[in-house]
Amino acid sequence: MIKDKAALFGHMVRRARRMTADAEILLPSTHLDIAMGDDQARVALNPTPQDYTMGAIMKSAGGSGGTIGLNKRKPDAMGGIRGQSCLLNSEESLERMRMQLDLAMSLSVVKQAEAQAKRAKKEAYGLYECGPAALLKLRKKGNDVAKLFKAEMRAIAHRYFATDLDDKTKVPALVAALQVLIAARPNVLPAVVVEAYTAVVVATAAAVAVGDGAGD
After folding, report:
1. Residue ranges per domain, the chain?
2. What does the pLDDT average to over 182-187?
């Protein structure tokens, strides 16, 4: 007749206690596989008249009568405990929690490294593709490196000098670094001008073709 599960549990505990001798200690059935400490078993399943009196006093004062929260555990599909709420009152519990935290930290570091490698690869590909256009702009500006954008300077250094310049470097330092590369190998850029022009023409034609196809 009692619908509320908490109230039904309380009713069952009270009835079991009334029907059991005072000297007998009630414990959860072994087939339930419930881990319950001695203090929890005494208060939850073996309350004394003093416990009932204290609960009545707290309830009369405006509370719920006094409640005890048991440990909550969330097993995953493999039966391992993934989420839990408990008191770390033993060295074994503390060591288990440390191992879980170390594993989580290791997985986080691995994922972060993979993400950084993916971003670096994508950025390197973008710099390589922008190299020809940046080189033609440099020729148009009279080979004045200072008239290029930072990305264009980094693209030239990456594609034609196999050097990665840091994007956080300030413009004057970036200009000086690229000028040093060009001065050290002055024959590199003149030799690839035709290749750069061809690459830009091909890329432009491909973009126009894609645009026409989208229009159709």
Report:
1. 1-70, 126-215
2. 89
- Provide DSSP, 92-151: HHHHHHHHHHHHHHHHHHHHHHHHHHHHHHHHHHHHHHHHHHHHHHHHHTTT-GGGS-HH
Angle at 70 between CA 69 and CA 72, to 5 degrees: 110
pLDDT for 20-33, tens place per residue? 777 777 777 777 77
Q: 171-184 and 150-161 helices cross at what angle (nearest 10)?
A: 30
Residue labelled with tokens 């940046």 = 134
Query: Any idea what the Cα angle at residue 68 is, between residues 73 and 78, rounded to 5°?
Result: 5
Specify the pLDDT at position 69: 60
CA angle (205, 209, 214) in 5-degree steps: 150
- Residue 81 — φ and ψ, nearest 5°? -80, 115
pLDDT one-digit tens code per residue, 101-112: 888 888 888 888
Task: Report the alpha-carbon distance of residue 75 to residue 78 in Å, rounded.
Answer: 8
Average pLDDT over residues 123-145: 84
In this predicted structure, the answer to whether residue 213 has a pLDDT above a threshold of 70 is no
Closest of 41, 43, 66, 70 to residue 56, by C-alpha: 66
CA separation for the pair 63, 157 (Å, rounded) = 73
Going by C-beta distance under 8 Å and a sequence separation of 6 or more, which residues neighbour residue 83?
Answer: 72, 73, 74
